[in-house]
Amino acid sequence: MKKGINQWAFPGNATFRDIFTLAAKYGFAGVELCPD
Questions:
Q1: pLDDT in tens, 1-36
Q2: Does the keyword Isomerase apply (predicted)?
């Protein structure tokens, strides 16, 4: 399992649900979020 990925690795229009779903699908254990 991969450790984590930053939210900026995803398209700008991706929802948090999309980000978490894709990260889990590809084996990432977590997502670093950078709220504006």
A1: 689 999 999 999 999 999 999 999 999 999 998 876
A2: yes
Which sign, positive or negative, has the C-alpha torsion 28, 23, 35, 17?
A: negative
**Residue 10 DSSP label:** S
Q: Which of 26, 36, 35, 17 is nearest to 4 (CA)?
A: 26
32 contacts 7 by C-beta, under 8 angstroms:
yes
Cα 29 to Cα 21: distance, rounded to the nearest angstrom: 11
Distance CA 19, CA 16 (A): 5
